[in-house]
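PT: before anyone asks, these are the final sequences, not the draft ones from last week. 861 residues across everything. Please model them as a single complex and drop the result in this thread when it's through.
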Amino acid sequence: MTIIRIAAAGLALLLAAACTAPAPPRGEVSTAASTACARPVRPPEAETPTTIDVIEQAYFCILGNYYSGATLDARSLLTAGFVALTQELNRDGRDLPGATMPALTGDRKADWAAFETAYRKITDQVPGLRDKLAIVTLEAIVAGLGDNHARWAHDVKRPLDYYDGDGYGLGLAANVNGPQADGDPGVTLPPLFVTTVQGGAAQAAGLRPGDLIESINGSAPFIDGQASPAINALYPQYPEARPVQLRLLRQSTGRRWTVTLKPGLYPRDPAALQAVQSKLLDDDIAYVRMTGFAPDSANRVLRAITRLRTGRTLTGVMLDLRGNGGGSPTEATRLVSAFAHGKVTAYQCTVDGKCQISRTDDTVELVGLPLVVLTDAGCASACEHFSSAVKDLRIGQLVGTRTAGVISGPAQGYLLSNNTTLGFPTRHHLGPNREVIDRIGVPPDHYVPLTPKDAAAGHDPALAKALALLHK
Amino acid sequence: MRHLLAVAAGLAVLAASACSAPTPPRSAVPSATPTGPATLPAPTGDHPVGATALYLKDTSRPDPWVPEAKARELMVTLWYPTQTREGQRAQYMTSKESELTLKGKRVTGVPYDVLNKTRTNAFTDAKPAGRKGSLPLVVLSPGFTTPRSTLTALAEELASRGYVVAGIDHTYENYATTFPGGRVAECVACDSDSDSGFGTKVVGVRAADVSFVLDQLTGSSAKWEGSSLIDPSKIAMAGQSIGGAATLAAMLKDSRVRAGINMDGTTYARIPKSGLSRPFLFMGAAGHPPGGSDNSWDRDWKLMTGWKRWLVLPGADHQSFTDLPLLSGALGLDLRVDLSAARSVEITRTYVRAFFDLHLHTGRQPLLDEPSPRYPEVKLCTPAGKTCE
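LR: through. Structure below.
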């Protein structure tokens, strides 16, 4: 078991993207174009530095395998990479007279050769920056796809004193999180406030749910009603460890004060980390919270419902998918299959409109109870696959707020020669009505946002609404 | 976007195996023709060995895996010195345990009862022998999904050397535990073993199990006829995999556990900043060198302030410290490890016994102080320098 865990930890890191996708039929991946990169088959060895050869491999890997790799203008990727390269030179005070973009023709191979020549000429003059420049260039090329399931995983580190289940950061969650906190704020509404105190620095400083965050490192969280990038500082990732200063207002007492929180590891309650948690509400509602669509999680939800059902008559099921970051589309389809048979749950389509159809697994026994699903902006990817199916197939009602809109398509992982992993979708996701969910999200049937007052008082208005609907 | 993905990656790290296909159990690797039931090698000590199964019920807590069960029920096997050299050999495991373990490990091509036919060396319910209050007690905790019987070769050895050994089945954490009357508990914990924080929960549960078992085996209302032979000031523990992690957790929770051995288990319990001063031995397979991919031993090592050693067997694998190598022929498995079954059981028995003899029993053990020419497979590590020799 321990070895399995160690291996799994490594795998999970690098297959983070891959795990969101079912294995494609063999014939599909073994096209000639995809030879640039392969699916990882075992936990990769230790990472080695990123070189121009790795960038080249990633470039052709994208062109050969990405959703629109066959048709996209490869010049846009090289340009994005070159922009990042020159910006980094500038940031380091090492701008060079010869750091200019070569002319590109639209011939993918010739353009790469021109890019590589220019790249080598520049980086040879700043050998001390070579690794850093390679990283920003490849990051920018991947970001150039503008795809929320495209990601290059590299330099993944964990603190040495890490314990299983530990969190890292300030120890709090706010009402703006996930995709909203980074560049794509959607229609995030002020004010910014603490929704959960998870531990760590936030707990030690006495923060409580409902506390308003008036400024972050001196910056306002909203400027002219728009969420500012300053909010991002609430969620530092290891090894980021710079302290974050927050000005807070507790409305109940009128107290206004400033705290400085240092990011770090903090223990979390194992019970709260279980991917599937369940309890009985009002003695007749099965409440099941699911934090991710991990392998076997659909079965775990169904077993939990069965257990709660034993010896009593239930009147409904409440699935709490708030903060559910997604996972396996297979699990999403399996869970839909417990509420509807003979239906399509999603389409996964290539750029030229050829679609794989995800159908319900009609061997899954139907639950046969009214269903209400709680959603919010933290419900992403497979969570939106499930939520859109619930809505489109009319198998239940959604309560809460609109989902994340982060579901371009299931990501596949590809191993690069320096043991880093590239992940991106080969197909894009459409809902059961062939509608785009990505960047739009799934709107709830009943809009019930959380207010700071609710958070402070420990009220859950969405849950109350869901209960009322199930008892109707 | 970067942020969500970072969060997602964080999740993946912390949720460990949540997103990855579980590695197929090592034992699912098929190989040659099965040999029929195994015979465990005879223990090397002077005493004949007795064995008995105890049913214990802790009514002070609900079962942590099945909260509707208002008590935690445990099955414990005791191995101990006896004077009897005859009687019925102890059953290795029940036929239901054999069947469910093979099914759980996806072993096919052998009869489901092949494990319960394993020939042991202990005599069932033989009368315990020894002076009152003289026998040291060693608790053994098995790996996740495997029953307590998978540490029988080690348990029999220690008993033949004068120890009372208590092997615990941590209910619902293995494929099968049989209770009196034939009732069988299966692996409820397997349901959530990919969750972040799962290991932390398991070792907490096991530490509570151990304290309860010690309560039941010592003191005036002890549950076993041989209890009065135990010296309650000489209690130690060892475990394999998560059982090794549980050993550390039990030591931190219960000061009656004087010393511990972790055989190849990633650890989860938090050692307080003030440190742990009781003796501890890390015995790792190839995957547990200092500075390796599992950070937990390096992390804990720094907080251990007493006698400590870190041994690595580069030719061993995760199961080398259990009976599995001895059973591989019966199961028709090729484990693909360098160490032979006979050698891995000899090394495990020798080093574990040396540790307990040193800390509970008879004093100096040069074997644990320097590399041994008799056991070149075992490397003694210097974690600060990330070296083993």
